[in-house]
Structure formats: structure tokens, C-alpha cells
Amino acid sequence: LPYMPHLPPMALLGKVTATTFALERPRCVFDGHADASDAVWLAVAFANASATFRNPRTRADVPLYKQLPTARSYMTLETAAAAYSCSARSPAVLRVGGDTACRDQGRQDPCNGPLPSPGPYRVKFLLMGCRGPKAETLWSEPILLRRAISPGTIDPASTRRVSDVVVIASILASLGAVLATTVLGALGAKVWGSLCHQDLGTDAFTRRSYRTHHIPPALPQPLPSGCRCSPPGLCCSAPQPPAPCQRI
């Protein structure tokens, strides 16, 4: 059939990963070739092994996922042919390598397990009936998966730059915290001092005694010359009349 499988043309998250890739679901490709009991398979092979791939004659001859490291190919995604018809309402994308349980359970049935290496891979769709293959598509162009970055290829300078930025940010955050603590402490001390000053002022006002004037004690008045008081002290009481004096 003149159809070549390909990646979806639209932007798609995870279109190609380190272990999986997405394929556009073929529609209307097998109409006129498939019966209700037929199934469509996806053959996956390493790009350099696709030319030697041989279509299985029966379902029992389908190469399994676990044989990929040695056989260099396998078949998966067995689907009823009706799911690829023009009228089928099926997802527009197929995910190759999306079944992570294949490797753990070691199942014998065809499995859609994660791809073990970046590839590249080629794929094709194969229509099979009860008597064997009936139609097939072209092989796809090579599909290369993403590669994990080797630790030796990571630039240490970029890591140091990131570390420097983190250190500077930490220092600035610490300085900001110290400054905020200092300002809050100063404000708190000022408020506390004003409260204490008000309390002390009230107590001092209630306990202090104030003298509005300093009045010195009255000095004794001098006696008139040539006289003596008798009895003594009567001459110093000023509004009383002077005491009789006697001449000496």
C-alpha cells in the first residue's frame, strides 16, 4: 500500500522520548482490503534490519518484543482492522513503546514495551487475516530516539554559575533578614523607651517637691547704738515698740 507511517505533524508533548515515539494513526488505508475478522499489526525493526524482515505466515510466528535484541525486530499493537477505517472514532496517535509492564512480567503475548536504545527504527503496518498477511504499508523513514546526556559532556562552568547565583541569592536573603531584624529591634526599643519615659515622668511628678523661691532666713536687726535691750530679745520683734533702754 502506498502509505508511509510517520510522526504526527502537530506539536505534541513527548512526541519522541528516550524509549518511545508517537505515530499518526493511519485512516482509510486498509478500507477495501480488510475483513471484519482481520487485524492490523505494527512491525518495528532497527533501521539496518528492516530489509531482512520477513512477514510471519501465521499469528503464532509473530516475533515478540523480548526477541528484539537478537532478532532485531518485533511486532506489536495488534488492533482490529475496523479501528483504522474512515468511520472509526479512535485516537489520532499511537504510542510505540508505552507499555512498561512488558519487561517486568515477561509475558509471551505481543507486547508494546519500551525501546531499549535510541535506534534508529523503522516501522510499517501489516494487515493479517486468518490465512496470513493480506496487505502492508511502506517502511517509515528512520526514527531516532532522544539520547540521555552523558555526565562527561556536561559543562561544569554552567554548574558553577548556577551555584554562584544560588550563593549570592542566599547571602542577599540573609542580609535582608538581618536588616529587617535590626530595623524592627530599633523601632521596638524606641517604642519601649517612650513608654518607660512616660511612666517615669508620672512617678517623678508625684514624688518630687518643688520650691518656687529660695527665701533666705531673716537676719537679726542691729540694735541702736548706745542702748541695750532689757530683757534680751524684745528689741528684735519688730512690730513691738522698742524696749526701754538705759544709758551706760
From TrEMBL:
Keywords: Membrane, Transmembrane, Transmembrane helix
Keyword field contains Transmembrane helix: yes
Residue ranges that the Swiss-Prot or TrEMBL entry lists as coiled coil: none
Organism this protein belongs to: Mystacornis crossleyi
UniProt-recorded name of the protein: UPK3B protein
TM ranges: 165-187
A single Gene Ontology CC term: membrane
